[in-house]
């Protein structure tokens, strides 16, 4: 089983456990909203562009709410569980596009619940996350007002953020560094080293793709 399929299965199991009204780290979204988002990005390509493009966000939100109206929560979870669209036809595309997406959203649910603890990922999954993160760090950190030096526990350094001015060193495991760079700074188990003001600015910055 690929990491994308494993994370897909795990997030669906967790959605089944939490039900439709559990909190997530996605501002304004409960688990029902997150399930609809995952279905939309795979099965409604006409609306998926609004996830990244603000001018189209209204249409995307309308389609997402429509999916909630049309499908009971268990039905949406069942649709997430089985890859749809191109991802169902091309397994390599599922692995390339959805591995980090499902990991982050899995943690969006886990880390919004009381008493959560970080998962210990397999060495192979850690290496894969770090490889993808190191390649995309400059894109994810492009809005950072300060320079960022990512240090992966176990080895590896990646740079991003502002090229001039103070720099903040962020140290942690690959999964937590990924969550940090995806804008989940307050919920990532990392150590921050640098000027106090620079650290505060980085923690409050809008990060992510």
Automatic annotation (TrEMBL):
Superkingdom of the organism of origin: Bacteria
Source species taxonomy: Bacteria, Bacillati, Actinomycetota, Actinomycetes, Streptosporangiales
The protein, known as: Uncharacterized protein (TIGR03085 family)
Entries under InterPro entries matching the protein: CHP03085, DinB/YfiT-like, Maleyloyr_isom
Organism: Nonomuraea endophytica
């Amino acid at each position: 089983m690929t990491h994308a399929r494993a994370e897909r299965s795990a997030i669906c199991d967790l959605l089944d456990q939490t039900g439709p009204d559990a909190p997530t780290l996605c501002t304004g979204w409960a688990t029902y909203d997150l399930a609809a988002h995952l279905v939309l990005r795979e099965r409604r390509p006409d609306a998926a562009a609004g996830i990244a493009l603000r001018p189209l966000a209204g249409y995307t939100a309308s389609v997402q709410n429509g999916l909630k109206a049309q499908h009971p929560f268990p039905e949406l979870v069942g649709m997430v569980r089985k890859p749809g669209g191109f991802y169902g036809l091309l397994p390599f595309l599922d692995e390339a596009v959805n591995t980090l997406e499902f990991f982050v959203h899995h943690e969006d649910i886990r880390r919004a619940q009381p008493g959560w603890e970080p998962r210990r990922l397999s060495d192979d999954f850690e290496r894969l996350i770090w490889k993808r993160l190191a390649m995309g760090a400059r894109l994810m950190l492009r809005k950072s007002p300060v320079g960022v030096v990512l240090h992966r526990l176990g080895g590896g350094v990646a740079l991003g953020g502002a090229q001039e001015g103070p720099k903040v060193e962020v140290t942690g495991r690959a999964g937590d560094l990924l969550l940090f760079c995806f804008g989940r700074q307050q919920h990532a188990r990392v150590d921050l080293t640098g000027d106090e003001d620079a650290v505060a600015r980085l923690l409050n910055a809008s990060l992510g793709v």
